[in-house]
C-alpha cells in the first residue's frame, strides 16, 4: 500500500533495478524436456532413416566404435611385440651411443649379454659389426649396434633405423662436448623414430670406486635435471652390475614399440652379412642379407645405400630358418623374386632436353609482337578526369586492366624492351654486374713461422669480406649504387618493376634457364603423395613382393666395390616412385643458436634430407605466404628461411640437417629443418633498391638526383613507382637537364632528410651444383 493509502497505486522499479535473463537450455532441448514431450513414445523408422541420412550416429554406436578401435590398437601392439624383438621373429635393433669420452661401449654390451644366466642364450657377432643376442628366458632377440663415435654419418644412419637408442653417460665425467653435439643431432634428425633411454654407467677407470654412493647419487640427479630441461620423460637408469643389466633388458622387452610415419612409407634393411660376387673388379653385384622391415619390397623397385648411391635389384631371395642334421640353424631359400624388365624402374636421373624449346629466350618478345602491342595500347580508351595529362592518364587503371593482371605485365615488359635497338652497340658482360662490387682487401704480408703456416690467408680474407657484406646488407637492405660508367637500363635490364609485390602476376614458366629442362616436376605434389600412399597399401596384398619381417638376401647389381671400415654398419632403403629423379627442393631451415657463421646464397652446403646425403648450393628466400617470395642474400644466425636447391625427389615427412664444410674437411652444423615441398615453380625474386636524394622540394613536388645520371635512364624507368623511407609514394614526371636530375610527384609533402627509393625485381634460380655425397669422396677429402 502506498503512503497515501491508495490501494490502486503499483510500485514500479527504477532504472537501476536488476534484470535477470531467462534460463536457456542452449541450442538443443534438455533431456527432461524431451522426456516430457515424448511421453514414452518411440521414434518411428522414418525418423531414424532421416538421422542416418544426416550422418547422426547414436551414442551407443559411437561407444562401440571407440571400443573396437581400442581393441584393434591393442591387438596391433601385441602383434608387433610378437614379431619385433620376439625370439622367433625380427630382432629389435638397439643402438648404443656413448655420450662420454671415458665410456667403453663394448664392456656395456658384454655386461648386458652376460647379465642373465641362461645356458640356451646365444651371442653372435655379424660381419657388419653388430651383436645379435638371443635370450630364451626373456623370449627376446636383440641386435646391438655400436657405430664408431667419430663417424657421425654412420651414427645418424643407425639412429634412423633403430627401434631403441641407449645413451651411455659416465657418472664421473658427465656429457662431453662431442656427446652433447651428437645428442642434438639425433634429437633433431632421428628422435621421432626412436625411444631414448638415458643410462648412467660407471667409468672405466678406478675413480668411481673412490666416490661414495651419496656423491654418485647427487651426480646422477644433476644429470637427470640437466636432461629434463631439454627432453621430456627422462629417467636415468643405473648400469653398474648384472642386476642393472637384467632390469634394462626386461625394460627393453616390455616397452611399447612405436613406429613413426617415415618408417611406414618405405622398406628398409640392416645388413647382417655382405659380400661381393667379384671383389677384384671395380663394379660387382653386392649381396646383403638381413631382416626386411617397414613394408614389402618388390624386385622392380630401386634401393638406396647411404654413401654408395641408388641401384637396381638383380633378384631377391626369401629365406626360412631350418635345423640341419648337426642341429645348426641355417637359412634355406624359400622363394626367389625376379624383376620384370618392362616394369622395373629406371635409373634415369635427369630428364631429356627438348631440342625444340629455347630455354634462354622462350618468352622474349619479337619486334612484331612489340609493334602489335603498341597499336593495341594506342587503341585503348580510358575515362579520365578533365584536364588530365597523357602521362597521368597512363597511371589510371581501367576496368579491363584490373581483371587481367597478365596484360599489365606484358605491357610493362614491352615498355622496358622498346628501346632495345639503341643498346645493341653496347657490348658488356652482364655477369660482372650481377652482384654488388666490393673493393678487394690489400695483400697482407705475414711472417713465416710455425703459427702462420697453419693459417689460410685467402680463407680469412674471404670470411672478412663476407662479414662486411652481411653487415652492409643488414644496414642498407638490397640497396645498390647506380653505376656511372654504365647505363642503368643496361645494368638492370633483367629487372622489372612491380605495382604490387603480393597481387601482381608473374608467370612461373617465363624465361626459364636450361637446367630446368633437365628436372622433373609434378602437376600436383600433394595429390602424388596420396596416390603413392594408396599404391603402397594395395601392394601389401600382392604376392610378387618380398614379405616384411622375413629374412632376405638382396642381390644389388652394378655396385662400386668398396672396402668398408671395421665396424661400419650397412643399411639399405627402398625408394618410392620417382625418388631417383632430380627436381627442385624447398626446405625450411632454422639457424642453430650455437653457429655464428654468416651463410651467403649460392654457398655450398651438405644436406642430410631424410635417408640421403648430398651437397648443393642453395638460394634463400623468406618463408612467407603468397606466390612470390623475396630473395635473401645472407642467412644470418637465429633466422628462419627457405632454401631452394637441386636435389633428388623426396616425399615428406623428412627432417633436414645442413652442414658447412671447411677446407680442412671439418663439418659444422649450421641449420636444421624439414622438407617443405618439391616445386620448381616457387618464385624467388631478387630485389634491387636504387636510391636518390631530394635536391629541391616544393610541397608535393621534388627534384631528385643521384638515382640516375642521364635522361635516357630516367625515361626508361619512368613508369615504375617511387617510395620514400618515410612512407611517401610517387612517380617520375620528367627529366631535368642532362645530368640525371628528375622532377617527381608524391602523395604528400616531402622532407629534406628523406630518401627516395625505386624497387626493381628479377627472378633468381639455384645453381646446378648437385653432388651426391659418397664414401669414396669422403675418404679422398680426409686424405687431402
Automatic annotation (TrEMBL):
Family, as annotated: Belongs to the TRAFAC class translation factor GTPase superfamily. Bms1-like GTPase family. TSR1 subfamily.
UniProt-recorded name of the protein: Pre-rRNA-processing protein TSR1 homolog
Function: Required during maturation of the 40S ribosomal subunit in the nucleolus.
Entry GO MF terms: GTP binding; GTPase activity; U3 snoRNA binding
Location in the cell: Nucleus, Nucleolus
Coiled coil: 416-443
Main location group: nucleus
Annotated organism of origin: Adineta steineri
Chain ranges of the Bms1-type G domain: 90-258
Keyword tRNA processing applies: no
PANTHER family, A to Z: PRE-RRNA-PROCESSING PROTEIN TSR1 HOMOLOG, RIBOSOME BIOGENESIS PROTEIN
Residue segments, region Disordered: 1-46
InterPro entries: AARP2CN, Bms1/Tsr1, BMS1_TSR1_C, G_Bms1/Tsr1_dom
GO terms under cellular component: nucleolus; preribosome, small subunit precursor
Entry keyword set: Coiled coil, Nucleus, Ribosome biogenesis
Any Gene Ontology biological process: endonucleolytic cleavage of tricistronic rRNA transcript (SSU-rRNA, 5.8S rRNA, LSU-rRNA)
